[in-house]
Design brief:
Radius of gyration of chain A: 23 Å
Order of helices and strands of chain A: HHEEEEEEEEEEHEHHEEHEEEEHH
Helix content of chain B: 40-55%
Order of helices and strands of chain B: HHHE
Oligomer: heterodimer
Structural class of chain B: mainly alpha
Strand content of chain A: 15-25%
Shape of chain A: globular
Strand order of the largest sheet of chain A: 1-10-9-4-3-2-5
Number of domains of chain B: 1
Radius of gyration of chain B: 14 Å
Structural class of chain A: alpha+beta
Strand content of chain B: 5-15%
Largest sheet of chain A: 7 strands, antiparallel
Helix content of chain A: 10-25%
Largest interface: A-B, 44 and 38 residues
Number of strands of chain A: 17
Largest sheet of chain B: none
Number of strands of chain B: 1
Amino acid sequence: MGRWPKPAEGSWTEHYPELGTGPISFRDSTSQEFYELEREAIFKRAWLNVGRVEELPRVGSYFTKEIDAARSSVIVVKGKDQQIRAFHNVCRHRGNKLVWNDFPNEETRGACRQFTCKYHGWRYDLEGALAFVQQEQEFFDVDRKAYGLSPVHCDVWNGFIFINFDREPRQSLREFLGPMVAGLDDYPFEKLTERYEFVAHNNSNWKIFADAFQEYYHVPSLHPQQVPAEVRDPNAGFECAHFQIDGPHRMVATAGTRRWLLPPEYMYPIERATRSGLVGPWRTPDIGELPAGLNPGGIEPWGIGNFQIFPNLEILIYGGWYLLYRYWPTSHNTHRFEAYTAFHPARSVRERIEHEVAAVVLKEFALQDAGMLGGTQAALETGVVDEFPLNDQEILVRHLHKVVVDWVEAYQREHDLVRA
Amino acid sequence: MRDFYDAFFPRLEEAIDYCDKFSLDDVPDDAVNLLHLIYSLVMVAMAVEIFKQPKPTDSADAVITRISEPVP
């Protein structure tokens, strides 16, 4: 009998009957053919988060993003009108990569007044218009207005910059995000600008890593060290307080006594000495009233709200700080993982130390998830079994894989229709 | 790592108190050095206190690289 009440249907999973309760396949995470479809069906149609507005502080600020899954490089830039726009990183002359620094395949960021192609000196302004062509008179009938940078749909939600590679996105960003995510409209992400950023190149399908961060069933087994050995319960389980699904997105809330309110032996000496640790700084600066949408289940005492925004974005909010994960596929069985922890700027050296502790602890435990991945992927790829039972605490794993398969199948149906 | 931990940990709170006297944007060089030692101790504490070995248990060959952080 669990601590947290389940919905009337008897389980979180059955509360969403379209999910089913049977075992699922992970072919979507091992098949090269599936990955090629996923690239088209999802990564070239969904809204993808590429950054935040604070990364473009002034007119002319830009960054580039290499999105292997869409086989595209994108420039994101703030124009003179303060608008943020995105363009394909391709010069309209002979297709050279326009914005890069030391190595063309590496992302870069900076600020400039215009973009100049290294090859023949064509120049584009911050709104993407072709501003200058060297020896323009040598060209035959080239109207500069027809050769501006190719735009990529770009929109901003609560400071998060999203792009969409579809010719015409089927939904606006806000429609795509839906009401559950819109419940975070008033969360003050813009106040939490002190970041520790991480990158990893992982040997697994992007979804296999995402799965590790959308269920806590694995915590007592894979992360037993989160509880000091002296007080560890070898039979511990983990029960989440609330799960919620809204369209392609999902969230989970955990609950329970705040870690630092437990008896001291439930924390490590470094945590007691720095007043920070596994769930972050014990105290964080007041950032104002937090929106009810942060805790849609109304859980008391509330722990964290972990929002998974389809397809590849996780925002996990601890209250006064948050972490963000993005998973970018680079092949059917590899991905680039981007992560950061975001705090209110430290007002003292002590607060800076608290942030350092939180960032280090998080990464060390994340290495346990990452360490397993190569093995998980290899084992899945043997293909000896393809039927995997998921329990109620794993509902978000079930949902992610179902939505991915649904989007691919919808794309295939459309494609077949077009061909006929 | 254990020698470093054993030597430093008993004075960790004292070190934090010392560095905390300064404003973040005006920390003198010797205090920055001490602060970096505190950061090193945080890293070492993971191995000494939590995992009881140099790398996290089951981390295999995984690598996660920290590419930016605030200074100091």
